[in-house]
Amino acid sequence: MEAQQQEETLPSPRSDLVSGGVWVVIGAAIAIGSWNMDRLEKQGVQAFTAPGLVPGVLGVMILLAALAIVVRSVRRGALHAVGGGAAAGPGIAGVAAALVLCIGYAGVLIGHGLPFWAASSLYLFLHIFVLQWPERRATGQVPRGLAVAAVIGLVGGVSIALLFEYGFLVRLP
């Protein structure tokens, strides 16, 4: 019963194949772009501090995760599926909402008066609450959703700011 319920919540094999393919391209582009960055060897920069190292590692990680999605979709019959079926996911409205929230975070909240921890907390809160809104409303759990999003947003925003400032020694806006 539980396996059937989990299968119903997974995206269709065809949509997994398409989205995994898109992420393969993005991960590969990031990894290739960072590999082609100047390593500043002539200036005596150590290899582990060279620009492009972190983006390169992240690009490879994205690529590997995307390949896992592609393999899963093929195992679930993506190459043999006819019609593909509807994906169990956020759909176009959810993707558009996530895009607007991300652009709002990077373009409006960061560096325009709010401390980084507050901007990040607000972003996380809004992202969680907005994307969970239809499900929370349908199950009558809107107040619980607000509380969960607020706690995760605050803890996440503060934790991220502390990690970057004291762990990675990065000055934040």
Describe, in plain words, how this protein is organized in 3D:
It is built from 6 helices and no strands. It is mainly alpha-helical. The protein folds into 2 domains: about 70 residues; about 80 residues, no CATH class. Helix 2 packs antiparallel against helix 3.
Layout: helices, strands, pairs:
Elements: H1 2-9, H2 13-35, H3 53-75, H4 91-109, H5 116-139, H6 142-167
Helix pairs in contact: 2-3, 4-5, 5-6
Structure summarized in a few sentences:
The chain has helices spanning 2-9, 13-35, 53-75, 91-109, 116-139, 142-167. It has 173 residues and is mainly alpha-helical.
Question: Keywords for this structure?
Answer:
single chain; about 170 residues; mainly alpha; flat
Q: Report the uncertain regions.
A: none
Which structural class should the secondary elements be placed in? Answer: mainly alpha
Structural Rg: 20 Å
Q: How many DSSP E strands? A: 0
Number of domains: 2
